[in-house]
Prior knowledge:
Elements: E1 3-10, E2 16-17, E3 33-40, H1 42-49, E4 72-73, H2 78-84, E5 88-89, E6 93-98, H3 104-117, E7 122-126, H4 131-141, E8 148-152, H5 156-166, E9 170-174, H6 191-208, E10 212-217, H7 227-233, E11 236-241, E12 248-256, E13 264-270, E14 273-276, E15 295-302, E16 305-317, E17 325-328, H8 332-346, E18 353-359, H9 371-383, E19 391-393, E20 396-397, E21 403-404, H10 409-418, E22 423-427, E23 437-441, H11 445-450
Parallel strand pairs: 6-10, 6-11, 7-8, 7-9, 9-10, 17-18, 19-22, 22-23
Antiparallel strand pairs: 1-2, 1-3, 4-5, 11-12, 12-13, 13-14, 15-16, 16-18, 20-21
Helix pairs in contact: 3-4, 8-9
The structure holds thymidine-5'-diphosphate and magnesium ion (MG).
Magnesium ion (MG) binds next to helix 3.
Amino acid sequence: MTRLRTIHRCTDCGVATPRWVGRCPACGAWNSLVEDVEEVGPSTALARRGTASGPVEGAAPITEVDATGGMARPTGVDELDRVLGGGLVAGSVTLLGGEPGIGKSTLLLEVCGRAAGLGRRVLYVSGEESRQQVRSRAERVGAVHPELWLASEVSLPRIITLIDQVHPELLVIDSIQTLHDPELDSAPGSLVQVRECANGLVRAAKQRGLPVVLVGHVTKDGGLAGPRVLEHVVDTVLSFEGERHHALRMLRATKHRFGPTNELGLFEMAEVGLVGVPDAGLLFLSDRRPGVPGSAVAATVEGQRPLLVEVQALVAPSELANPRRAAQGLDPGRLAMLLAVLERRAGLSFAKADVYVSAAGGVRLSEPGTDLAVCLALASALTDRPLPEGLVACGEVGLGSELRQVAQTPRRLAEAARLGFTHAVVPASASGFTGMEVVRAATVLVPLLGLGLLNG
Ligand code: TYD
Ligand code: MG
């Protein structure tokens, strides 16, 4: 006999404790524990120890296993397919997370419209909006097609019934937080409901070979009922980000069982929905004013995609005992480390100054290849001397001030040359590029000296 026992589970890390406590004993998060149930009793233990009674799928040599079932099928939205490494895999479950209002419903409605346009039947289930509301949005983004079926439904068993009536080739659930299973006595939106509904949909997807996309709302601090817990349940986790006041939206995979997780998808929110940005080109440089101290251009790469991004620094005298260090679009720890390298190895002093660094356009610099550009921007801001126009930088800066090679340097520089940049500073160990004047430097001191950015 299986029994259910009440426990408390952390919504951040998923750990279970028998009693409620104010702080998670595993990850240290405050007020993150919510009530949950867990199965106890001999049945689970016996199933693990004993032999299975029903038919089991045997072991087979890898060469005889059919891999075509795992092939990705393009959705028709190119920037999404880029992030997914081709498209959606049959029977896979994808969670699309993002803050409310960022554009998740819009993106998925466009995906549905494209798929329907390719002759595939699609079922879009909204638990938040009526069918009329979804239809009027679909008209706005050009997704109206007879193969796109709409339902406004929140009950899991009824959604499973709908799947077997409509026979879709793609299912979208908007959002997982609105679903509930009447067989569970927890309230809709609770962790138990969200997780069990996701589990039910995963089973339904696998049994039918149906690709499913779930929307999951995430608050600014990354929380809310379950996305963390859901990450273990689904095959792919996509995160949709952007500044609400900017049109730019970025799509990344943080978990992906069927491909790479480092690709970046770019969209712009327009009057007609989300428009893919296949050529990022001057996107992160467009408002740059040449000749201003504190501005440097980093040649970075996200997945297979080279991106040129303006890095800005401002250094202002400070009265504070602990001067301010503000980083927007880059890791504050990385900024602190680069400041320490400039102080200790290059003799530049930021001790009595507030330092602000930001990556233009709301982009996030997650890659060490941008270190050199950050250092050049900081030194340029401190000395009040602008960097030459047409200069790009790429390279990781080590604690000893050495410049380290980063992946795909030729590709970064080729993109810079295409956009009209003429000079580059790269690590001494990098090679294999033409089309620009390239300075290869062993340490960060070389370009600082060459550009006249060292005091005294
Ligand atoms: P939405 O997809 O509803 O966000 P989410 O599902 O993540 O909560 O997007 C909402 C915002 O997008 C809304 O503020 C209006 C804007 N928007 C446009 O600018 N253009 C459009 O064509 C559409 C459909 C929405
Ligand atoms: Mg929505």
